[in-house]
Amino acid sequence: MNGRNIIDNQSVAWSVRAVLVLSLGLTIGCASTPVGPQTTIYKSGLNHVYLETDPDSSSNDHPTQLTPSEIGSLLRGVRVWKHRNILHRLYSGEPERMRAFRNEEVAELAPALSKALEIASADQRVSFHLSHVTEHGQEETTTGWLSIRGNLLYLDLSEVHDRHGPGPDISKYDREMPNVPEEAPSFHATFEPEEYLHRVRSGWKLFTTNQREELQIRYRDALEALTKAPRS
Questions:
Q1: Phi first, then psi: what are they for 212, rounded to 5°?
Q2: Strand 187-191, strand 124-133: pairing
Q3: Are 213 and 199 a contacting pair, CB within 8 Å?
Q4: Per-residue pLDDT tens digits for 82-119
Q5: Are 92 and 14 members of one domain?
Q6: Is residue 105 domain-shared with residue 175, that is, in the same domain?
Q7: Read out DSSP for 88-119?
Q8: Which domain holds residue 12?
Q9: CB-based contact 128:95 (threshold 8 Å)
Q10: Hey, which of 43, 79, 157, 216 would disulfide with 198, CB 3.0 to 4.6 Å?
Q11: Strand order from edge to edge, sheet including 139-149
Q12: What is the number of other CB atoms lying within 10 angstroms of the CB of residue 41?
């Protein structure tokens, strides 16, 4: 009888282990979706624009044509501001809304994004990473991606002027592994004029500090309005 109990207990133990391993495999599989190989469109130093598989959609309206001027107008309409809780707002007021893309960033990004959209396939998105060294030796990064579906431009931002470091002189080489941002407060994003903003979606990646702000912009209507009233 004791021998039988031992065998039964071992069987139960192995069954539990199998369930745990299977559950862990399913969790890992659901937590990260591979995006496939990258096709570089533009690279200068640590600044990079590239095509990759879109894990969110395989039916984007790509290729599509948007001129660098049109993309620049849309980027200038994106605004971000830091998150403040209710006590912080009562003490300091509402945070200032800032442009997500400075003039020099728009000038560098717009031509590359335009070219990428012209050759992207329906199952790809256009991703970008901007980086420069601040006067204090930190790395400041802005990262995101975009795609076109119907009359909507999907613009996702995971970093906006996040600070990393200080560390070695990153202007001399490319980092193989990403640094954890030293200054990465949660942020909000919008598009102005807001009447052309179809929807905003916010999200976080499980077990990380990675944020994702998705703007769905009625870009054709916005461009028609913005060409009549140039953005600052």
A1: -135, 115
A2: unpaired
A3: no
A4: 754 555 445 555 657 899 999 999 999 999 999 999 99
A5: no
A6: yes
A7: HHHHH-SPPPEESS-HHHHHHHHHHHHHHHHH
A8: 1-31
A9: no
A10: 216
A11: 39-44, 47-53, 124-133, 139-149, 152-164, 211-218, 197-204
A12: 22
